[in-house]
TrEMBL record:
It comes from Acer yangbiense. It comes from the Eukaryota. SMART domains: ELFV_dehydrog (SM00839). One of its GO terms (cellular component) is mitochondrion. Belongs to the Glu/Leu/Phe/Val dehydrogenases family. Pfam families: ELFV_dehydrog (PF00208), ELFV_dehydrog_N (PF02812). InterPro entries: Aminoacid_DH-like_N_sf (IPR046346), Glu/Leu/Phe/Val/Trp_DH_C (IPR006096), Glu/Leu/Phe/Val/Trp_DH_dimer (IPR006097), NAD(P)-bd_dom_sf (IPR036291). This is Glutamate/phenylalanine/leucine/valine/L-tryptophan dehydrogenase C-terminal domain-containing protein. Residues 71-263 form the Glutamate/phenylalanine/leucine/valine/L-tryptophan dehydrogenase C-terminal domain. GO terms for molecular function: glutamate dehydrogenase (NAD+) activity. SUPFAM superfamilies: Aminoacid dehydrogenase-like, N-terminal domain, NAD(P)-binding Rossmann-fold domains. GO terms for biological process: L-glutamate catabolic process.
Length: 266
């Protein structure tokens, strides 16, 4: 295991030095976060390599180990956000999670149609198009949550089932990454170093303790996932569209408004 970790680190060092550290990532540009096959250890390596060239920069990556300023709860945030978003969806239809019949599909080797005939809610957490045209007509679920990226194809999407799209349903991880980034950016990068020069050790520790605990992180995640769904739903009402189109329209509109206000032209 140790040999594998050393080899993996050398690979990341070479790649980052040539392609990432000076051109693509930075605390105010593009902030890497974990994804499939990439965890806190890799984030720690990226942080270390970037800091060699730019000074200690804990805000340059998220999903770090907690010992390096990572957030408690970040590793589970993507999965935890799914029921938060699902609960907001069900509330819109006068329902709650309690009492619903759920199936979670997380392996392509399973047959969705065998279980989807008898349930209220189907949650897909495996990769890419588990609900395809050949079994779309057999899926009897009233609601589908896309806990993975793009697990339903277009034909299944058009079947009339209420689908909570991936761009909303599995955004819990990137939401908590935002919490981690912005708090580190404000305190550790912009203020802490100035405070350290004049404050006693005990007060410096208090400043570091500004970071939220796991309960606070989870509560704020629920708030963001709930509000995000409500914003998407309002966009759907405005444009008479489904949740997927509403989510994309909301995102594009946010970027477009910011671009317009800054004076940029197409």
């Amino acid at each position: 295991m140790v040999v594998e970790l050393v080899g993996a680190r050398k690979t990341h060092q070479s790649f980052q030095t040539k392609h990432l550290l000076h051109n693509l990532i930075g605390i105010h540009t593009d902030i890497p976060a974990p994804d499939m096959g990439i965890g806190p250890q890799t984030m720690a390596w990226i942080l270390d390599e970037y800091s060699k060239f730019h000074g200690y920069s804990p805000a340059v990556v998220t999903g770090k180990p907690t010992d390096l300023g990572g957030y408690l709860g970040r590793d589970a945030a993507t999965g935890r956000g799914v029921p938060f978003a699902t609960d907001a969806l069900l509330n819109e239809y006068g329902k709650t999670i309690a009492g619903q019949r759920f199936v979670t599909q997380d392996d392509r080797s399973h047959e969705p149609s065998r279980t989807a005939k008898f349930l209220t809610f189907l949650a897909y957490s495996s990769m890419l198009m588990n609900i395809a045209v050949e079994n779309a007509n057999e899926t009897k679920a009233i609601f589908i949550t896309e806990a993975a990226n793009h697990p339903t194809d277009q034909e299944a999407d058009e079947k009339g089932v209420v689908i909570l799209p991936d761009i909303k349903a599995n955004s819990g991880g990137v939401t908590v990454s935002y919490f981690e980034w912005v708090q580190i950016l404000v305190f550790f990068v912009e203020h802490l170093l100035e405070f350290i020069k004049n404050l006693p050790y005990e007060e410096v520790q208090n400043i570091q303790g500004f970071m939220w605990d796991e309960e606070k992180v989870n509560n704020e995640l629920r708030n963001y996932m709930t509000k995000g769904f409500k914003d998407v739903k309002e966009m759907c009402k405005t444009h008479d569209c489904d949740l997927r189109m509403g989510a994309f329209t909301l995102g594009v509109n946010c970027v477009a408004r910011a671009t317009f206000l800054r004076g940029w032209e197409a």
